[in-house]
Amino acid sequence: MNAEHQTLDHTWELPVAEPVIATVRNAAKAVVLNDGRVLLQRAHWEGQDCYFLPGGGQHPGETLGVTVRREVREETGLDVTPERLLWLREYIGANHGGAPEDHRVEAIFLCRPEGDPDKLGGHAEDDVQTGLEWVELEKVPGLNLLPHGLRPLIADLAHGESPTRYLGDLA
């Protein structure tokens, strides 16, 4: 082969982009209600002060009910009883300017506290967590609660039970 031919052959060896391997992560979140209030995590996330529902990722072999109890205990120090599934929410990052491999499915449970609801303080707080707060349900729409689509649904719990429903890809 001559040098010109080697150069042409070499140009066909373009780098191959690594494929994005997407996995779906399951999680369980809790709407913990007590005396017209909901328990929220205060957080500082992506440069903003905000609130989240307590909860987190499911471990292999763990039911979602066990996941929500474990995560709430770790993050808040509170034992809860999951009473029923309220909502099923998905988050697909690529649809909201996020990472294409970020796909989460969250089961959001209505939970009641066991024991003294004012004894809070978990041993495994999230990195972004700055505190815990019981918030009146009527005040939830005015909070920077993420995802924003949950605010009216949580506030409506002050007026009665919400039917279980699939929320879709909610940011």
Strand content: 35-45%
- The count of domains is 1
Oligomer category? single chain
For the termini, the CA-CA separation is: 58 Å
Low-confidence stretches: 3-8
CATH superfamily: Nucleoside Triphosphate Pyrophosphohydrolase
| Largest sheet geometry | 8 strands, mixed
Overview of the molecule:
The protein has 171 residues and is of the alpha+beta class. The protein has a single domain, classed as Nucleoside Triphosphate Pyrophosphohydrolase. 16% of the residues lie in helices and 40% in strands. The chain contains 3 helices and 8 strands, in the order H-E-E-E-E-H-E-E-E-H-E. Strands 1, 2, 3, 4, 5, 6, 7 and 8 form an 8-stranded mixed β-sheet that branches. The chain is globular, with a radius of gyration of 22 Å. It starts with a helix and ends with a strand.
